[in-house]
Amino acid sequence: MNKTVNHLVILGSTGSIGRQALEVVDQHPDQFQVMGLAAKDELDLLYEQVQKYRPQAVALGDDKEYRKFQEMVGSTLQVMCGLEGMCELASLDNVDTVLVALSGAVGIEPTLAAIKKSRRISLANKETLVAAGDLVMQAAWEYQSEIIPVDSEHSAIFQCLQADKAYVKKIWLTASGGPFRDFSQEQLDEVTVEMALSHPNWSMGPKISIDSATMMNKGLEVIEAHHLFGLEYDQIQVLVQKESVIHSMVELIDGSFLAHLGVADMRIPIQYALTYPHRYVSPAAHLDFTQLGCIHFAAADEKRFPALALAIAAGRQGGTMPAVMNAANEVAVHAFLDRKIAFRQIPILVEQTMLAHQNIYVPQLEDILTADRWAREYCRHLMQQ
Ligand SMILES: NC(=O)C1=CN([C@@H]2O[C@H](COP(=O)(O)OP(=O)(O)OC[C@H]3O[C@@H](n4cnc5c(N)ncnc54)[C@H](OP(=O)(O)O)[C@@H]3O)[C@@H](O)[C@H]2O)C=CC1
Ligand SMILES: CC(=O)[C@@H](O)[C@H](O)COP(=O)(O)O
Ligand SMILES: [Mn+2]
Fold first, then answer.
1. N or C end of the chain: which has fewer CB within 10 A?
2. How many CA atoms lie within 13 A of 26 on its CB side?
3. Which residues bind Mn(2+) (predicted)?
C-alpha cells in the first residue's frame, strides 16, 4: 500500500468517467481525499457527491445551475462558476492530481490551469489534446506536470511503452468498430440516436458513444496518441478488434509486440491513471482466456466511416485545423443527439467546416480558441441552410 494520500480534483464528476473515478475512490478510501468537484447539469448527483466526499470547493459550468446549486448548499461550501471557476478549481492549493473528465474542448483552459500548478493530470478528456495538443504538451513539459492517460487505448500504450520507448516501430490503436461496424452504407443512412448510443462493449457518455459510432473517436484518439507519445502519424495504425479485449499494442523494431489486455471496464485505466506507478486490486472482472474464444482483427473501412480519415487529415495538417475539426464534430454530434440532423450528416458537416477554414499553422492559445468558436458558428450556419 502507498501511504501518501492523493488529493484529488475531478472535473466532470457526474459523468461516466467521473462517477467511475469516485468508485475507485470508494474502493481505496485511505488513498484519496477529494478536494474539488466540477459538473454542469446534474445538480442532484453533484449534491450527493458533495455530501459524501466533503470537497473544499465545487465549480458549476453553467451560470444558471451555479445559482441553483449555491441555494442548495448555502454557505457550507465554496461554489465557483463557469470556465473561470473551473480553472480556479483546477488550480486549488494542496492538490496532487486533477482528473479531467469533462467532455469536449471546454477542457482546454482548466487543463492548462492545472498544468501551470504542476499538478499530475489524469486525462480522460481527449478533445483537449486534439484541439490544443502542442500547447498542452509544451506547457506540461515546461511546468513538469505529468500527463497520465485515462483513455483505455492510451493507458494500454502508456503501460506497454514504459520499458522500450527507443525501440518503438509503431503503435496499433485498437477500435471496436462501434455499433455499426458491419452496417452497409444503406443501413448507415437509416440509423437512429438510440442505435448509435448503444455501444457493443463499453458504457460511456453520449458524445463519445456517438463518436465511436462514426469512428471519429478513433480519429481523435490517433491525434491524442500523436501528442501523448510523440509519434509521427505514420507510426499510428488503427486496427479493428471487435471484442475490445486488446486495448492497444506497441510494435518494436525487432518484430516483438507488446499488448495490453483486459475486460472492457474503465475503472482499470482510471485507477491506474490515479495511482501510477502503483497498482491496486480493482473490482473489475479479470479476463478468463478459457472462456474468451476468438479475438478478431480487421482493417478500418474509411469509406463507410469517413470521420476517421477526416480527423487524421486534420491531425496531419496540424495548426488550428484539429481544433476546427473537433469543434464542428461537437456541434454536429449534439445536433444529431437533438435529432436535428441525420447520422450521415456528421462527417459531411465536419468536412465542409474544415474546407472553409484558413489554417493557422503555428497557433497561440487565443488562435485555437478563436478557431474553435468560428467552427462552431460556421457549422451551425451550415445546418440552417
Ligand atoms: N466514458 C468513457 O468510458 C470514456 C470517456 N473518454 C473521454 O472522457 C471524457 C468524458 O467522457 P464521459 O464521462 O463519457 O462524458 P459524460 O458526458 O458522461 O460526462 C461529462 C462530464 O463533464 C461535465 N461537463 C460537461 N461540460 C461541462 C462544462 N461546460 N462545465 C462543467 N462540467 C461540464 C458533465 O456534467 P453534467 O453531467 O453535470 O452535465 C459530466 O460530469 C470525454 O472526453 C471522452 O471522450 C475516454 C475514454 C472512455
Ligand atoms: C473506453 C474507451 O477508451 C473508448 O474510447 C472506447 O475505445 C470506444 O470504443 P471504440 O473503439 O468503438 O471507439
Ligand atoms: Mn478510447
1. C
2. 10
3. 151, 153, 221
Nearest Cα to Cα of residue 130 among 270, 301, 313: 313
The dihedrals phi and psi of 361, each to the nearest 5 degrees, come to -80, -30
- What is the rounded CA–CA span in Å between residue 11 and residue 98? 7
pLDDT digits (tens, 9 = 90+) for 134-185: 999 999 999 999 999 999 999 999 999 986 678 999 999 999 999 999 999 9
Q: Is 126 in the pocket of ligand 1 (CB under 6 A)?
A: yes
Which residue's C-alpha comes closest to atom 5 of ligand 2?
151
Identify the DSSP state of 283: S
383 CA to centre of ligand 3 in angstroms: 29
**8 Å CB contact between 91 and 75:** no
Ligand 1 nearest atom to the CA of residue 128, by list position = 43
Task: Tell me, in angstroms, the distance from the centre of ligand 1 to residue 158's CA.
Answer: 22
**Closest C-alpha to 6, from 27, 35, 26:** 35
CA of 172 from ligand 1 middle (Å) equals 26
- Looking from the CA of residue 221, the nearest atom of ligand 2 is 5
Closest CA to 170 of 234, 118, 228: 234
Closest ligand to the CA of 66: 1
Mean pLDDT of the chain: 97
Ligand with smallest separation from the Cα of 199 = 2
> How many whole angstroms separate alpha carbon 232 and alpha carbon 313?
13
Ordered domains of the chain (ranges, CATH): 6-149 (3.40.50.720)
The H or E element spanning position 112 is helix 108-116
- Write phi, then psi, for 58 (nearest 5 degrees): -130, 160
User: Which cell goes with 173?
Assistant: 490503436
For residue 208, give the DSSP letter: H
Beta strands per DSSP E along 255-363: 257-261
Q: Does 61 contact ligand 1 (Cβ within 6 A)?
A: yes
- Which atom in ligand 2 lies closest to the alpha carbon of residue 152? 3
pTM of the entire predicted model = 0.97
ipTM of the complex as predicted: 0.99
For β-strands 57-60 and 78-81, DSSP reports them as parallel
